[in-house]
Design a protein that fits this description.
Number of helices: 17
Strand content: 15-25%
Structural class: alpha/beta
CATH class of one domain: Alpha Beta
Radius of gyration: 26 Å
CATH topology of one domain: Rossmann fold
Helix content: 25-40%
Bound molecules: alpha-D-galactopyranose
Length: 660
């Protein structure tokens, strides 16, 4: 049976070799079976151009292998050596303000720079040739967090690469002018090389130019990944990954990235001071599963505090276990940390690790070893499906477009609305999948579009087809407004969804900062109001005050065998969204566990039900029969969970959902 992989980033080059022997002994003790090695060791294995020193890496790989620890072998290209920066100063990344990035740290390199790409190819070829067939190597870890520390480079080399990218996209300049709508302000181009990278400029840079710049920059990083991937494939049959930063990297379109990697892996760090930060963790895990289209791997999280937030709060006892098991519940097949042993030197010495500075007589170490034991009991979760009947639409391009300048309100934020709907569903114990608007939606009882400002014709057609075939769609305001060039869909808003929703919008009425609006249902809206004109939809609630008093705020349009709901203001869980979604969920037949406290996270994966108690109180969750997968406790209709505890139940029988 396959196991849940357990481990972390391992940086033995920071330690004398005698420590390595203690490391492997402790890894065995904690059940560690996979470490990411060599992620930042370029300056060590290639001390001068073309000179190599693989002695240390050879020895540690052999030692790990002899101790049953697999290797996720890094390509060290996220930290170029000092000699490369000196020999080729042109590889330094230039930011949008024209500032050139210095060294003394990792990253900060132009992804398009030929000298950088060549140097990467050369070190990767050496590594792949040397270790491609080593039995310890189970995974290739290409680069690290593509896009971190400057996703976009504005240097002249990048600008020329952008011209080539545009030329291959559009073929001729007239097509580009047409798509970008350059008649506006007469911003017409007569050749591709007239186009400037959209760096610091007066406001109003063509939004279509900005969107294509984002697409180009994402593709440049993908091109860098591919160069390495193709070299590795010549020497090794082992799968490759690169660690994503879902959902916190806005610049990388991970739906595109997921097509490139053999295994989707993600890094997630709790925002320590954020209230209910465990819900943001759930969202990250669900979105990672969405881009992966199935199980994935958690490449990094932290055992306790990180070092880079304003106040690096330590995790409380049991919190790391809850975090790790939540990732597992939501589709992770491996749980790794940054990092194995806490550094003494450098920028990350105050970051927690599996082995803290204080060693093994510490709470963190005990929790690490105990989690390792737990995971051995849960191997049956590996490769199994997470059950979800509801989908939320997510699209990086829509995120980019919505948050360009000069929108009707600065309060229109992509994640704000997605998170509002996600949080409300989470608190009602509903697990969601995140899907792209053009994905196959059949099979979902409910699809929610909280913030689909940019919607292609294909996406709009997909949503309409889903509804006509019997689906239920909930759409929030300012969706279906523009196409992929940020051009307004023809006619009245929301052009792409007008027929699906059975309405049109005469005028937007954004709400002043901090102000709110009443609905006649008792709900309270924020941010948005608008003049909705019906064209087949029925009114479920109306605005009771504000500029649209008496007009529709919540509507439903029956179309084919399904229906599409529209919400014309920002409702939050406590101010109306919960009630609205509860109605929609009930009428859609979405199954939800009943009787569990709101802050108990409940997720079904394979034959296991994970119940994670985020409260400081003991709770008892009713309606479950089964066996505890961790300690064999039988449950007869009720599962007791200690404050902050987790139960993983192998379900044998379940009470029928209420009302059936
Ligand atoms: C990122 C990096 C790691 C490390 C951690 C610290 O995720 O990939 O190398 O710097 O952050 O939290």
């Amino acid at each position: 049976m396959r196991t849940i992989r357990y481990g972390g980033d391992y940086n033995p080059e920071q330690w004398p070799e005698e420590v390595w022997h203690e490391d492997v002994r402790l890894m065995r003790e904690a059940g560690v079976d996979l470490v990411s090695l060599g992620v930042f060791n370029w300056g060590i294995v290639e001390p001068a151009p073309g000179e190599y020193d693989f002695g240390g890496l050879d020895r540690i790989i052999d030692l790990l292998h002899a101790n049953g620890v697999g290797v996720d072998l890094g390509t060290p290209t996220a930290s170029p050596p000092a000699w490369l920066r000196r020999a080729h100063p042109e590889i330094r990344l230039v930011d949008s303000d024209g500032r050139t990035m210095s060294g003394g740290t990792r990253h900060g390199v132009c992804p398009s720079a030929p000298a950088f790409r060549e140097a990467c190819a050369s070190i990767v070829e050496r590594l792949a040739a040397r270790y491609g067939a080593h039995p310890a190597v189970e995974l290739w870890h290409i680069h690290n967090e593509f896009g971190w520390g400057g996703a976009e480079c504005y240097c002249p080399v990048s600008e020329r690469a952008f011209h080539r990218w545009l030329e291959s996209e559009y073929g001729d300049i007239d097509r580009l002018n047409e798509a970008w709508g350059t008649a506006f302000w007469g911003l017409v181009y007569r050749s591709f090389d007239q186009i400037e990278a959209p760096g610091a400029a007066p406001p109003g840079v063509n939004p279509a130019l900005q969107l294509d710049w984002r697409r180009f920059s994402n593709d440049e990083h993908i091109a860098g990944y591919r160069i390495q991937r193709e070299i590795i494939a010549r020497y090794s049959e082992v799968p490759a990954t690169t660690n994503f930063m879902v959902p916190n990297c806005k610049e990388m379109d991970y739906f595109r990235w997921a097509r490139e990697v053999d295994v989707v892996s993600n890094n997630h760090y709790l925002v320590a001071e954020r209230p209910e930060n465990h819900i943001e963790l759930s969202m990250s895990a669900d979105l990672t599963r969405g881009v992966a289209g199935g199980p994935w791997m958690l490449m990094e999280h932290s055992t306790s505090a990180v070092n880079w937030q304003p106040r690096n709060l330590a995790k409380r006892p049991g919190e790391m276990r809850r975090n790790s098991l939540a990732h597992l519940a939501r589709g992770a097949d491996g749980l790794l940390f940054f990092q194995w042993r806490a550094s003494r030197t450098g920028a990350e010495k105050f970051h927690s690790a599996m082995v803290p500075h204080g060693g093994t007589d510490t709470r963190v170490w005990r929790e690490v070893a105990s989690l390792g034991r737990d995971l051995k009991q849960l191997s049956e979760a590996v490769d199994s499906e997470v059950a979800a009947e509801v989908a939320i639409l997510w699209d990086w391009e829509s995120w980019w477009a919505l948050e360009l300048e000069w929108r009707p309100s600065v309060d229109l934020r992509f994640r704000e609305r997605v998170e509002a709907y996600y949080v409300s569903l989470w608190k009602q114990h509903v697990t969601v999948d995140f899907v792209h608007p053009e994905a196959d939606l059949r099979g979902y009882k409910l699809v929610v579009a909280p913030s689909s400002y940019l919607l292609t014709d294909a996406g709009a057609k997909n949503l309409r087809g889903y509804v006509e075939d019997g689906g239920r769609l909930v759409v929030s305001y300012f969706s279906g407004i523009v196409d992929e060039y940020d051009v307004v869909h023809p006619g009245a808003h929301p052009g792409a969804l007008r027929e699906t929703l059975g309405l049109w919008i005469e005028e937007f009425h954004p709400v002043a900062e901090g102000a709110s609006l009443a609905l006649d249902s008792g709900a309270v809206g924020r941010i948005w109001s608008e003049h909705v004109r019906l064209e087949g939809a029925e009114v479920l609630a109306a605005f009771a005050d504000g500029p649209d008093a008496g007009r529709p705020a919540l509507t439903r349009n029956r179309l084919g065998r399904g229906d599409a709901w529209y919400v014309a203001t920002a409702l939050d869980d406590a101010t109306g969204l919960r009630n609205l979604l509860a109605d929609v969920l009930d009428s859609s037949g979405v199954h939800r566990p009943t009787g569990a406290p709101e802050q108990v996270e409940i997720v079904d994966r394979g034959g296991l039900r994970f119940l994670i108690n985020h409260t400081g109180e003991y709770v008892a969750v009713p309606g479950l029969w089964g066996i505890d997968a961790l300690d064999g406790t039988p449950y007869d209709g009720e599962v007791p969970i200690a404050a902050g505890g987790v139960a993983v139940v192998r379900i044998t029988e379940e009470a029928p959902p209420q009302g059936t």
